Predict the structure.
Amino acid sequence: MSTTSPTDRDDAARAVLRRNDRGGFTVPNGRVYPFQWNWDSAFVALGFATFDLDRAWRELETLFEGQWEDGMVPHIVFRAPAEGYYPGPEAWGIQRQPLTSGISQPPVAATAARVLHDLSAGDAARIRALFPKLFASHRWWHEIRDPDGTGLVTMVHPWESGRDNSPDWDEPLSHVVPSVDVAHLRKDLGHVDATQRPTHDFYNRVMTLVEEAKALAWDGVSVARTLSFRVCDLGIQSILLRADRDLLKLAVELGFSTEATALRDWIARSETAMQRLKGADGLYRSLDLRSGRLSEAVTCAAFLPLYARTASREDALALKEYLAATRAVAGFSVASTDPRDRRFDATRYWRGPVWLMMNRMIADGLSGYGLTEEAATLRQDSGELVRRNGFWEYFDPRNGAGCGGPDFSWTAAMWLSWSGSPSAAQALTAL
Ligand code: DGY
């Protein structure tokens, strides 16, 4: 176990963010992910906010410089050339500046912006400038990615979920017929052990989806209606609903009344539709929109309806039981796949490991339902993982070993703003 004192660890966390800062935007990890990623930036902003609020705002502002005209905030903004990553800008083939990918990621930004605004002591200039862009990104999800107004938004690529390699996508991805072989182009295996990363077959299928979207010239509605992978991700659905609520608070406070009306409608629609994501055992899952089938596995996303404040009291109690049962098996919480499931893999990307920013959203959800003891346990587990091993991308739930990339920005940010603070009350703020 490391002997670093809490203050040294705080310094080390700030140093990770400073080192990964490329001038107004932060790379998740300089080697594995050398560009700006969408939801990473939103979490990273919370870390910067503990010591440099101006820099925290900048992180969101630079992310939105990559926003498309239709409102989409891409999952990667390729702000400056960098070696060592595939698929880089040429693989996406999108001609715009700054260069971007063509898919999105879970919309945490409005929630992060609401937190930054709460810390901004009445100075509303930055949130006023950002609000229309945040709103346009929510409109994109609710209109372009839900063209029939069902209340369930579509994701068209596993990377949009941020939980790239989750067993949630095994079934829907099995119906994508690979048309490319990209194994030789991969760079991630030069940085991270192959047992901790997705397989070649996964890469071939997901890059096939990129080719399908290219053939549609990345037209938003055509992509949403026709790509051969179309899933309602429980993660995106819940994170969006929560972010809608945060954006609505901002809209009311700032006097954006038309936008507030639209947000209320979207929230009502999503709340009703969430019921379709509930399995027979009472736990929520992702929905394959092509087959109409719920995913089989129960993953860490199952807790996110708490974060969205859309779960019932009974749902919350069922999740409390479920958390206790899986923690008893896995050691550290929350394993990204149920450790009793045959698909559980303790160290492979999103098939077992623990992620700190996921824990933070889950803990926020648990506290929202009065499950404060469970929330405190998650904060403790998350702090312990960093104390033992440092700021890794993810952790083996059995023994806490660090996996993926070291010196990871969002892990440092979660330490600073949440799990490293002396008490829950002193954590930056509830999300
Ligand atoms: C990767 O390259 O593994 C990323 O997670 C895609 O966003």
Q: What stands out?
A: The mean pLDDT is 95. The longest helix spans residues 234-254. The pocket of (2R)-2,3-dihydroxypropanoic acid is lined by residues 75, 159, 164 (CB under 6 Å).
